[in-house]
Design a protein that fits this description.
single chain, 34% strand, 158 residues, alpha+beta, six-stranded mixed beta sheet
Length: 158
């Protein structure tokens, strides 16, 4: 057989095999996407429940416990889990300041099997201190098999 023809046959066979190898995982992507979206919604639901019972450390369990966590708010970026927790405790010192949190308009986009973004709206119902709310963009990653917020850009619409 001519060397060029042999190379073409080997290349064609390799391409055919690589196509077969990627077909099965691609077929599973919709199911993985649904599962990831459910898991991410659960993270946010758990965070809101912790917030609503006045448990800021519990709320923070949805965040990546790392110095690389970034939270961007009206005062600019805060880096690290502990400084982010400290800011929440300082800005929401009691149940009246915390109010009742709810998320709405969630749009979850899977960026990769272990990475996603969430765009949504937040609202704090605070009868004494006055309601506040705004929008957010979260980046989540699977860390040790659990979805965690690794970046949070939250603004206030008021």
């Amino acid at each position: 057989m001519l060397p060029a023809l042999k190379w073409l046959r080997l290349t064609g066979a390799a391409l055919a095999l690589s196509g077969c190898a990627t077909t099965a995982p691609a077929a599973l992507m919709p199911q993985r996407s649904v599962e990831a979206q459910q898991a991410i919604r659960e993270v946010l639901t758990t965070q809101a429940a912790a917030w609503n019972r006045g448990d800021i450390p519990g709320f923070m369990q949805g965040y990546w416990k790392s110095d690389s966590l970034v939270f961007i708010g009206r005062k600019g970026p805060t880096y690290g889990w502990q400084p982010t927790l400290d800011n929440y405790v300082k800005n929401y010192p009691n149940a009246a300041a915390m109010g009742q949190l709810d998320f709405s308009g969630l749009r979850i986009t899977l960026l990769a099997p272990t990475a996603a973004q969430v765009v949504g709206q937040w609202h704090l119902a605070r009868p004494v201190a006055g309601d506040v709310g705004g929008y957010f963009l979260l980046v989540l990653r699977q860390v040790d098999g659990q979805w965690k917020v690794v970046a949070d850009h939250t603004n206030s619409a008021q």
